Amino acid sequence: MMRASRSAFIRASTALLSGAQAAEGGLNFQLSDFQREMQATAQKFAREEIVPKAAELDRTMAYPKEIIKKAWDLGLVNMHIPEEFGGIGATCLDGVIVQEELAWGCSGCSTAIEANSLAAAPLLTGHASKALLKKYLGRLTEEPLVASYAVTEPGAGSDVSGIKTTAVKKGNEWVINGQKMWITGSGHANWFFVLTKSADGFVAFVVEANTPGVTVGPKEINMGQRCSDTRGIQFEDVVVPEENMVGKVGQGFKIAMGAFDFTRPPVAIGAVGLARRAMEEARDYALQRKTMGKAIAEHQAVSFMIADMAAGIECARLMTHKAAWEIDQGRRNTYFASCAKLMASEHAVKCASDAIQIFGGNGFNTGYPVEKLYRDSKIFTIYEGTSQIQKLIISRAVFDSAKK
């Protein structure tokens, strides 16, 4: 798509979005015109551009550059960036609706596409300066660049407060030293959101990927979502200007964790998209495969497995939409986001596992897509907070409510 066409698309999308936001009412499960248009665009893109390439990308572990570029041309990347910085200012729910379709095509590709949203989220919480937003978010809308969220460390995954990466202030600059691990998109990133620890508390920064002292490690060979680039990053005497600080000294941890309220719904819906794909593959196979003189779909043992898949998918989708909608209303959605992430991720693994069972020996074979879905599914229970972390958040909220 030429730049003029892309600009026209963004203007049209913004008009539709403005109309959708103006229409208010009570409880309503109907998608807006904008949401239906974006859903249809994402469905078509997943079917025509992602699905045909998914198996090969999984085999080669190649980064889906061309897919990301085409998704960017269609406005499926950086949807949440405000209009003043070149985006369309889509809501969390808008993005969730699109992300389900992309993950249905390939969750490795959808994770690669979604990486920018995670990197941008901490900047959009109201702590970043306008100059920082204009420079780095505007850059993402001017060309199909990648940004990464660099918080996790080898010894600090679930325990983010235990990070060891340091930032020392020297005049009007900060010097960063430390190591990050399992950073999505880092091998192709233009800039990183980085969480550090200073003598006065946690500090967050935007760090240019080409800054001297930044070394990106080799690509990790993961079990699933293999086309999504995951690497470690080394920071050795990396000098960052004061104006690249996000928020104030001491606010870094809150800013980094606050981003999850916005980004956990997209992760949860990615699991829903994968679960839906697994269910549909199992459904179609069950209608074709025959045993004992009839399609295996007619055997209760198989049909009940499909029923469990379908019911769980509907529940997880509704829970995820609720979590996204809550934050779009300006309310804290931590409890709902954790419920959605827990339910959707665990159900995705179950759906993929049951799909393999329905396929039988063929499901264990790389000639069919369900073995890839199974490998891809597991990471949903780990990244952006493990299932155990989600249970911790949920249980604390339940007990806290009883004390009020």
Task: Explain what you see.
With 404 residues, this protein is of the alpha+beta class. It folds into three domains: 3-146, Acyl-CoA dehydrogenase/oxidase, N-terminal domain (Butyryl-Coa Dehydrogenase, subunit A, domain 1, Orthogonal Bundle); 147-253, Butyryl-CoA Dehydrogenase, subunit A, domain 2, CATH 2.40.110; 260-403, Butyryl-CoA Dehydrogenase, subunit A, domain 3 (Up-down Bundle), CATH 1.20.140. 53% of the residues lie in helices and 15% in strands. The protein has eleven helices and ten strands. It has helices spanning 3-22, 33-60, 65-73, 92-105, 107-120, 130-142, 252-288, 300-328, 334-359, 370-377, 387-403; strands at 146-150, 166-170, 173-184, 189-198, 201-208, 214-216, 230-241, 245-246, 290-291, 294-295. The chain has a four-stranded mixed sheet with strand order 1-4-5-8, covered by helices on one side. Strands 2-3-7-6 form a four-stranded antiparallel sheet, with helices on one face. A two-stranded antiparallel ribbon has the order 9-10. Strand 2 (166-170) and strand 3 (173-184) form a beta hairpin. Helix 4 runs antiparallel to helix 5, helix 4 packs antiparallel against helix 8 and helix 7 (252-288) runs antiparallel to helix 8. The model has no long low-confidence stretch (mean pLDDT 94).
Q: Which stretches are low in confidence, meaning pLDDT under 50 for 5 or more residues running? A: none
CATH uppermost class of the largest domain: Mainly Alpha
Number of helices: 11
The count of domains is 3
**Would you give the CATH topology of the largest domain?**
Butyryl-Coa Dehydrogenase, subunit A, domain 1
Q: How confident is the prediction overall: mean pLDDT?
A: 94
Global geometry: globular
Radius of gyration: 21 Å
Q: What is the number of strand segments?
A: 10
Distance between the termini: 55 Å
CATH superfamily of the largest domain: Acyl-CoA dehydrogenase/oxidase, N-terminal domain
| Secondary structure: helix percent | 40-55%
> H/E series, N to C?
HHHHHHEEEEEEEEHEEHHHH
- Our estimate of the beta-strand percent is 15-25%
The CATH architecture of the largest domain would be Orthogonal Bundle
Largest beta-sheet details: 4 strands, mixed
Return the structural class: alpha+beta
**Largest sheet: spatial strand order:** 1-4-5-8
